[in-house]
Specification:
Elements lengths: L1 H11 L3 E6 L7 H14 L3 H4 L2 E5 L1 H12 L3 H7 L2 H7 L20 H11 L11 E7 L4 E6 L8 H8 L9 E2 L5 E4 L1 H4 L3 H11 L5 E6 L10 H4 L4 H6 L2 H6 L3 H10 L3 E4 L15 H25 L3
Parallel strand pairs: 1-2, 1-7, 2-3, 7-8
Antiparallel strand pairs: 3-4, 3-6, 5-6
Helix pairs in contact: 2-5, 2-15, 6-7, 7-8
């Protein structure tokens, strides 16, 4: 009887594991490459390992696929096929990739078609595990979390479209309840802290551990004296959107608050294009290599962190 009681206590005290995905367009493929290696090394699906999934933008799409559909990372890699990427970036309104264009770069129709192919008519409440994606409500001027537990009636296609509606690239998306949302990356491209807060409410009596996966950081130097003379167009040409999205502040705060129960997987983008929509063969190979380099650097640490 005592042995049974001790086993029960150990199970009860087992930490709840949260998987957090950054946004970053096509660079989010690197996180799937990394997690596929985790599945190979552990012999377990990522879906089975984690208790809660959260993501922003392309990371939100990854979270919805794993938690909502229960797929392996081998299957998820197919979601990010060259064919699907080309479809999501169809019908460009830009003639010469100029930020002076008056419309979003893509119309978003192809993106929604791809989402419907995978999510069908499922709602967030039908997700196989708890999941949340970060968006921003433009009319009410506040962040909004779409989740399987607080907004179960929202369609997965709608949630995926909203969290990935990156300004400049895609139009603002109207979800099922009539609100207009854009990419949550403008609030927190790394949603780890939000995931930690949600998990603490969901699993109030459990220890929480967060595995946070980035999409690479652009370390290219910006010339200080030159930047003092830049207006809006020059800042856009020098990746002001990337500067805002790649802030390390949330990572630093997460390390301070969560401590050893927080593990961050990320690196410099290196040769990977900073643009979120470069789906050229060369860039996709570089993204894949970045994911494999992450596994070489963080693989053993991740297995230990997750007790696998």
């Amino acid at each position: 009887m005592r042995r049974f009681f001790n086993s029960f206590i150990q199970i009860k005290r087992k930490p709840k594991l949260v998987l957090s995905f950054d946004g970053g367009g096509v660079r989010a493929i690197a996180s799937i490459v990394f997690l596929k290696q985790l599945e190979i090394a552990s012999g377990k699906k990522v879906f089975d390992v984690f208790d809660f999934f959260i993501g922003t933008s392309a990371g939100g799409i990854n979270a919805l696929n794993i938690a909502g559909r229960g797929v392996s990372c081998f299957d998820l890699e197919k979601f990010w096929s060259k064919e699907n990427l080309s479809k999501t970036m169809s019908k460009s309104f830009w003639d010469n990739a100029s930020f002076l264009q008056t419309k979003p770069k893509y119309d978003g129709e192809g993106k929604r078609e791809v989402f419907f192919d995978y999510f069908k008519d499922k709602s967030l409440g039908e997700s196989k595990k708890p999941v949340a994606v970060l968006t921003y409500d433009v009319e009410n001027r506040r962040p909004r979390l779409l989740s399987s537990y607080d907004s179960p009636g929202i369609k997965m296609v709608s949630a995926a479209s909203a969290t990935s509606a990156a300004p400049i690239y895609y139009p603002t998306h109207e979800i099922d309840d009539g609100t207009w949302l854009i990419d949550g990356g403008i609030v927190a491209n790394n949603p780890s802290l939000i995931g930690y807060s949600e998990a603490k409410k969901m699993f109030s009596n459990s220890e929480i551990k967060i595995l946070s996966i980035g999409t690479g950081i652009n370390r290219r130097k910006i010339n200080g004296p030159s930047s003092a003379k830049w207006g809006a167009l020059s800042w856009f040409r020098h990746d002001i959107l990337g500067v805002m999205l790649e802030s390390s502040m949330f990572d630093e705060i997460s390390r301070d608050l969560i401590g050893s129960n927080y593990l961050r997987i990320n690196s410099s983008t290196g040769l990977v294009n900073r643009r979120m929509d470069d789906n050229s063969d060369v860039n996709l190979k570089r993204i894949h290599l970045m994911g494999m380099e992450w596994w070489s650097e963080f693989g053993e640490k991740t297995l230990d962190f997750l007790n696998l």
